[in-house]
Amino acid sequence: MRILITGAAGFIGQITARALLNEGRYDEVVLTDIVEPPVPANTKYPERARCVKADLANPEEVASVVGSSGLESVILLHGIMSSGAEANFELGYHVNVDATLSVLNCLVKTCPGVRVLYASSEAVYGRPVPKTGVTEDDIATPEMSYGCQKIICETYLNDYTRRGLINGFSLRFPTISVRPGAPSAAISSFLSGVIREPLNGQPCVIPLKDRAWRHWMSSPKTLVHNLVEVALKLPREALPLHRRSVNLPGFAVTVQEMLDALEAVGGKEAVALVEEREVPEIKSTLYSWADDFDNTLALSLGMKKDTSFVNSVRDYKDTLEASR
Known about the structure:
Elements: E1 2-6, H1 11-23, E2 28-33, E3 49-53, H2 59-66, E4 71-76, H3 82-87, H4 89-110, E5 115-121, H5 145-162, E6 167-173, E7 175-176, H6 190-199, E8 204-206, E9 214-218, H7 220-230, E10 245-247, E11 251-254, H8 255-266, H9 268-271, E12 274-276, H10 280-288, H11 296-300, H12 309-322
Parallel strand pairs: 1-2, 1-4, 2-3, 4-5, 5-6, 6-10, 7-9, 8-12
Antiparallel strand pairs: 9-11
Domain NAD-dependent epimerase/dehydratase: 3-217
Keywords: Carbohydrate metabolism, NADP
Protein name: NAD-dependent epimerase/dehydratase domain-containing protein
């Protein structure tokens, strides 16, 4: 039994691959990205990983990655993040839409009925959006190209699933914090940077002066649990065949709560490294994001949510210290 992860060189791809290579459910875990992904360190079954460099917009390269048999599940994590997709219109559509459709069309031919988990985003929601309790029933009105690209791919997934070509689920990710590594091209990157950089002794800028501003987030640990332990095991009939989108569980965290968590774990010296500075060109986007979701659907499917941002910060600090 085989599973494929696209975008596997990225942070979410790596921690998802690590979880799968530790549990031994799959005989082969295929990792692919535009650069050759590494095998995650300290895994129980590293020999089961196959790492492939591929351009997923190229049908021939996709076919070589997918193979001809035994592919049980696919997790689509590749993509150009929000500000990157907004800055480069053509590249955003090429990577986020064309490459995704290329993979889906290959799967239909070689692995009909295969389970596909598509990493969508809460960026599909824009104004007007309810101030509280956003659900999957609320109309998605994205205000960025990135969100538009996600809705396009969700629609493909719905139709391909309805027709029995795949067994797809579109999972709308909250912002994942705290992410290690270098800042990403996402506008929301500062939501990890506000913790990551100060705990590494580096300065960080929060691009607004509003400590009551809040955002919907999930820890990496909880995200991987919901992917590996729940979404990969959902029966086809868990959702209507033409409505396959799920808002993954998260919780709202204000800027003040982020700073409080940073101080609780890193002390006042860490908070002193944070600068609050308005960045007018992204202010409208920041305030367009939904910040309060009703996760009843996800929780009914067996997913779980975080309850403390301080715990997320402590998890990151533990990971940081273990890597030193």
